[in-house]
Amino acid sequence: LPQGFSLISAISRIAYTQTYSEGGTSGGDAVWAEAEGAFNATSLRDKAAVELNITPNAGYTITGATSSSLSGTALSGFAYADNQITFVMGHEAATITLSISIARYTIVFNSNGGYGSTPSSITCLVGQTVTLSLNTFARTGYVFLGWARDAAATAVEFGDGAEVTSLSTTNGATVTLYAVWGEKGTDGREGYTIEYNSNNIDINNNNLISAVSGTMSNQTGLKYTQVFDLADNAFSAAGYTASCWFVSSEVRSGGKTWLKNVALKDMIAEAMSAGQDVEDTNKIIVYVHWTADTY
Question: What are the distances in angstroms from CA 224 to CA 60, 139, 190?
Fold first, then answer.
């Protein structure tokens, strides 16, 4: 029988062909046409009554059936209704053609907390294998893992650019695939790094300071949602007092001092607004601000 159909009961085996039409319409382009193996009708007694019961699988609908014998005449008493074909077998082999409608559905993509341009939607037929559009979303603090049909899913159902088949069997349905995100700094994913910069600029007059000394190690492996303390300043400059820490080397309006009980995601937001390329580098640079001592 045609792909997507199962024969419940049949008195005979006969030759048949099948044709497919698109998405519940009576016209449109044929998806494919296929002739199945011919069976010799001489095994059936002439004038035998034949009943074929056919059950379409989900997503397929029989819209009609026709018949013809080798001489081109229709089978005697041929009738089709409600997935059942009845006829009286003649002395010639015969062909039955089923007209089959295949459900059409659309796949769309949801950023699920991310941002960016939306991947192209895909309209496809039940039984058709399609390649998912590549992800174009991004999300601050997270890595794209794949797609799932549940917005709350943490496990991936389909990888980026995966091939999928029959995500729905309902004609006209929309299947939404939600981006699945993994937080940076968790489950072995690269986290954020804090780089301490001694910043050799006097913030009041922008003069260079030549006598800044000291070193500080980076903090690494931080999660996007982590709350943590920045290290105490270990840099020094003769004749200057340090203020710590800032995400810009210069004074900027609304700039915040960061040191203890830092919510990393808030500091990342300010660092990005100050022009730091945090998401591509996974690094936030924090600066000392120096003020000349007065005597």
Answer: 47, 11, 11
